[in-house]
Design a protein that fits this description.
Elements (H helix, E strand, L loop, with lengths): L2 H17 L4 H17 L2 H17 L5 H14 L2 H13 L5 H17 L2 H18 L4 H12 L9 H10 L3 H7 L1 H21 L1 H4 L20 H24 L4 H18 L5 H35 L1 H12 L2 H16 L5 H18 L4 H14 L8 H10 L6 H7 L1 H16 L2 H4 L3
Membrane topology: Multi-pass membrane protein
Organism: Salipiger marinus
Pfam families: DctM
């Protein structure tokens, strides 16, 4: 049996272990350790490489980015910034067709710029937006689907944990990945808005509980408008945080790690100024930050160990040769890769897909002359779609569990997210065909 054959068998074993329920970190460690042991016929080398990988992972200054952005996102979540953002968006957009749906997308877009986690957006806006949309005549399932569909913006609009994880795995600039995600994220948000307006006009029965009523299309104009000073007061905290983090990164004034530190401090000031953070909540936030950060660190160390095993097996080089000989070319490989990720998204979570696929695919993409930042945005877009596709669809399940409405089934929410998936596929194709959408600000 050749080393290459062993490599392919080990990848298959990894997927099987994950599908059987083994945690992805343990599966990666086990497969990588056994792989190095078998390929090099030395258990001592396997232990030595595990030691070196763990040390290099913990010692890397770049990993400080993760806990800082996680802390910032959690502090923002407890300070009710998401609720205020939705209230302002609702007031500004209430006269539009499908105004509350558009307001949900707009609020998710802004909220994503300071959290970076789709699940946080899904949980926050399920409590805030779904009751308000239902009260104004939207179908409950459509309201929940709108929250689930627009929550994926948190994985693309910087700062995003998936962009950080990809940057570490592919060894590209995290600050560059943040900037690269801006235009595709705005394209996705704009596509959602156009889709919601078009859907309300073309298929009002899909959107509204009572299509004959115009109440949900344009909210009652007699409702008292929010005073301008109150609107500004609600928006100032999130605008300042966005300027601090993205402005500092874009101008080169901050490194990603420094931006995370400044953003976390800014979020702490916001939470304290709103008196939404007591000692109990602060302890919960710090504890949750530690749990999430250590989990991600363990995953990244495991993925690095797995990547070294793949390099020893020569798998990326062998697959690159097969792609070159097949005549696919760089673009053909990118679409084949995106298709595989879309299929994996039906059965695996986002982080697991990145940890399994990026160590294999990134060296191949680089060998084919693809820009790794462009390749990364395509990767994250494809992974995002998996957040909405059955049977896994973690964003859909998060919304369903948070909503806890027996009249709204998970199947109905999945059906309501189909238009969002269609928009995401169109944006994925556009970004893949037009690298300038990613590199324009770099």
């Amino acid at each position: 049996m050749t080393i290459l054959t062993i490599g392919f068998i080990l990848i298959a074993v990894l997927v099987v272990l994950v599908l059987m329920g083994m945690q992805i970190a343990y599966a990666l460690f086990s497969v990588a350790f056994v792989g190095i042991w078998i390929i090099r016929d030395s258990i001592g080398l396997a232990f030595r490489m595990l030691e070196l990988t763990a040390y290099s992972g913990i010692a890397d200054y770049l990993f400080a980015t993760i806990p800082l952005f996680v802390l910032m996102g959690l502090l923002v979540s407890v300070s009710n910034v998401g609720r205020d953002t939705f209230a302002v968006a609702e007031d500004l957009l209430r006269r539009m067709i499908c105004g509350l749906g558009v307001a949900t997308v707009a609020a998710n877009t802004v909220f994503a710029a300071v959290t970076g986690v789709s699940i946080a957006s899904a949980a926050v806006f399920t409590r805030v937006a779904v009751p308000e949309m239902t009260r104004h005549g939207y179908r409950p399932a459509f309201s929940a689907g709108t929250v689930a569909g627009s929550s994926v913006l948190g994985m693309l609009i910087p700062p995003s944990l998936l962009l950080i994880i990809y940057g570490v795995l592919a060894e590209v600039s995290i600050g560059g990945m943040f900037i690269a995600g801006i235009l595709p994220g705005l394209m996705l948000a704009g596509g959602f808005v156009l889709m919601l307006i078009g859907l309300t006009v073309v298929a009002p029965g899909f959107v509204l509980s009572d299509p004959e009523s115009s109440r949900a299309r344009r909210l009652d104009r007699t409702i008292k408008r929010m005073p301008l000073n109150e609107m500004i007061r609600k928006l100032i905290p999130i605008i300042l945080l966005v300027i601090l983090v993205l402005g500092g990164l874009y101008t080169g004034f901050f490194t990603p790690t420094e931006a995370g530190g400044v953003g976390a401090f800014g979020a702490l000031v916001v939470a304290l100024s709103r008196r939404s953070l007591n000692r109990h909540k602060l302890w919960q936030v710090m504890k949750q930050t530690g749990v999430i950060s250590v989990s991600i660190l363990l995953l990244l160390i495991a993925a690095s160990f797995y990547s070294r095993m793949l390099a020893i097996a020569g798998l990326p080089t062998a697959i690159a040769d097969l792609v070159s000989q097949s005549g696919f070319g760089p673009l053909g490989f990118m679409f084949l890769y995106a298709t595989i990720i879309l299929l994996m998204g039906m059965i695996l979570d986002s982080t697991s897909i990145l940890l399994i696929m990026v160590p294999i695919a990134a060296p191949i993409a680089q060998g084919l002359g693809l820009d790794l930042m462009h390749f990364g945005i395509v990767t994250v877009l494809a992974v995002e779609i998996g957040l909405l596709t059955p049977p896994f669809g973690i964003s859909v399940f998060t919304v369903h569990n948070t909503l806890n409405d027996p009249d709204v089934s998970v199947e109905q929410i999945f059906a309501a997210t189909l238009p969002f998936i269609a928009v995401m596929l169109l944006v994925l194709i556009a970004v893949a065909l037009l690298p300038a959408t990613v590199t324009i600000f770099l």
